[in-house]
Specification:
Keywords: Sigma factor, Transcription, Transcription regulation. GO terms for molecular function: DNA binding; sigma factor activity. Residues 112-155 form the RNA polymerase sigma factor 70 region 4 type domain. With 173 residues, the protein is mainly alpha-helical. The chain has two domains: 9-87, RNA polymerase sigma factor, region 2, helix turn helix motif (Rna Polymerase Sigma Factor, Chain: A, Orthogonal Bundle), CATH 1.10.1740; 118-169, Arc Repressor Mutant, subunit A. The chain has six helices and no strands. It has helices at residues 9-27, 34-50, 60-117, 121-131, 137-144, 148-169. The longest helix is centred in the middle third of the chain and has 58 residues, at 60-117. The chain is rod-shaped, with a radius of gyration of 37 Å. The mean pLDDT is 84.
Length: 173
């Protein structure tokens, strides 16, 4: 029957001083995140202190190395899971944002249509010829047998009324 060695504070301090740097160096092969490395090594020593009377450890260096490696692998797995969740969340947030923008565009499009329908007939016709048919002011003037100045004036009125209507009725989310 083996007798468990007594680990007091002085003995523990010696173990800590001897193996802390060694464990940190070993874990640096897995990640360059110094904070994570130090946290993991700290957790190992806390566990060793808390369970000092429970186990009989034949080879302390091997025990600490295996504990450190296992904790690091768990950390890396959890970190990858966290990154995957963040990526999924970001993707979903982006899709929701696109959907909201799509709804906003549809709402804005409907308001624009209402605003155009509320224009006086001559103003509406000139606006649609310009924006929908892509005719120049000169072409519109020739087609409707009006002056270019009339087309310019009617377009100014149309744009002003449409902006006013949309500003009064549109609520962005």
């Amino acid at each position: 029957m083996k007798i468990r060695p007594v680990i007091n504070e002085n003995t523990f301090r010696g173990i800590y001083d001897e193996y802390y740097g060694y464990l940190c160096r070993n874990l640096s092969f897995y990640t360059h995140d110094i904070g994570a490395i130090e946290d993991i090594v700290q957790e190992i020593f806390v566990k060793l202190w808390n369970e000092r009377d429970l186990y009989e450890i034949d080879n302390l260096k091997t025990y600490l190395s295996v504990c450190a490696k296992n904790k690091m692998l768990n950390y890396l797995r959890d970190e990858q899971t966290r990154k995957n969740l963040l990526n999924t969340w970001a993707k979903n947030t982006n899709e929701v944002s696109k959907a909201i923008n799509c709804v906003d565009e549809k709402e804005l499009g409907l308001l624009m249509l209402q605003a155009i329908n509320n224009l006086p007939p001559k103003c509406q016709k000139i606006y649609l010829l310009s924006r929908e048919e892509k005719l120049s002011y000169k072409q519109i003037a020739e087609l409707l047998r009006v002056s270019i100045k009339t087309v310019e004036t009617q377009m100014g009125i149309a744009i002003h009324r449409i902006k006013e209507f949309v500003a009064m009725h549109y609520t962005s989310k």
